[in-house]
Write a structure and sequence with these properties.
Layout (H helix, E strand, L loop, with lengths): L1 E7 L3 E8 L4 E2 L4 E4 L6 H12 L8 E5 L3 E2 L2 E2 L14 H9 L3 E5 H12 L8 E7 L3 E7 L2 E3 L8 E2 L2 E2 H5 L1 H6 L4 H19 L3 E5 L6 H4 L9 E3 L6 H8 L12
Parallel strand pairs: 1-5, 5-8, 9-14, 14-15
Antiparallel strand pairs: 1-2, 2-3, 2-4, 6-7, 9-10, 10-11, 12-13
Helix pairs in contact: 1-2, 3-8
The structure holds beta-D-glucopyranose.
The site of beta-D-glucopyranose has 16 residues, from α3.
Length: about 250
């Protein structure tokens, strides 16, 4: 069975039908640039346009870069401030005319990695970090998600973690891989002081270039690369439409 998964990011919106048994896209994904300003209405319009490009029916899973509780977005770090308090679940449901599961993008990516990727069968505390426009985090305890963690906004020496170590920061500041890896390590060390994880999974588009920075990371927790790469958010969004994968209170 395939279900449409859509991943709304700070720079692009990606969509594809997902085979939920195998955790892979059934066709090539389609992408639109994230509209600017990234208001809920503009994003809903892009999501509807993307959904119309596929011959799919039934539920749609949508991952968004915000805290989502009961369908309502509560933060807006890299999207328009109008998201705060917006019932994005209801807007999407009305616009698509289909049942919708909406959840945080890093949680979606984490769900996919735990089910089909680098976190498969991992017990204990697993922290997935998505390094992209911002830094998203997803925390799992014995495979169960603790939804809506926002460690990308943790304070590191007077600055938010995502303002030091996101992939965007590396590009914007033209940081060397060495310098950027030092910043990422600082985030990993700060987080392990609080959570003592058993495993870190690093995702986001930059994880494709893992050989450039993974060997440079310094922390006590083992670090692995996400296996689903940039598709993790799409796969996790689709999975969230099914029983047992929806974070408590997400829809
Ligand atoms: C947002 C998170 C999101 C992450 C990755 C952060 O700025 O606060 O909710 O998961 O970016 O998109």
């Amino acid at each position: 069975m395939s279900v449409l998964g859509i991943d709304v990011g700070g720079s692009g919106i990606k969509a594809a039908p997902v085979n939920l048994v195998e955790g892979r896209l059934t066709t090539e994904r389609h992408k639109l640039l994230t509209p600017q300003p990234a208001t809920p209405e503009a994003i809903v319009a892009s999501v509807v346009a993307l959904a119309g490009e596929f011959d799919s029916h039934g539920s749609v899973g949508v991952a968004v870069p915000a805290v989502v509780k009961h369908g309502v977005a509560h933060t807006a770090a890299n999207i328009d401030a109008a998201w705060i308090g917006c019932d994005i679940g209801r807007l999407l449901h009305e616009a698509l005319g289909r049942p919708v599961a909406v959840l945080n993008d890093a949680d979606a990516a984490g769900i996919a990695e735990m089910r089909f990727g680098a976190g498969r069968g991992q017990r204990g505390t697993v922290v997935m970090l998505t390094l992209g426009t911002g830094i998203g985090t997803a925390v799992f305890v014995d495979g169960i998600l603790v939804p809506n963690t926002e460690f990308g906004h943790m304070d590191i020496r007077g600055k938010e973690a995502e303002h030091r170590a996101s992939a965007q920061r590396r590009k914007d500041d033209n940081l060397s891989w060495e310098k950027w890896a030092t910043n990422v390590s600082e985030v990993l060390v700060a987080l392990e002081r609080l959570l003592w994880p058993d495993l870190y999974i690093i995702g986001g588009g930059v994880s494709r270039k893992h050989e450039k920075f993974l060997p440079l990371l310094e922390c006590r927790t083992p670090v692995v690369t996400a296996e689903l790469g940039n598709d993790a958010g799409i796969v996790g969004a689709a999975l969230a439409t099914t029983e047992g994968h929806t974070p408590a209170g997400a829809r």
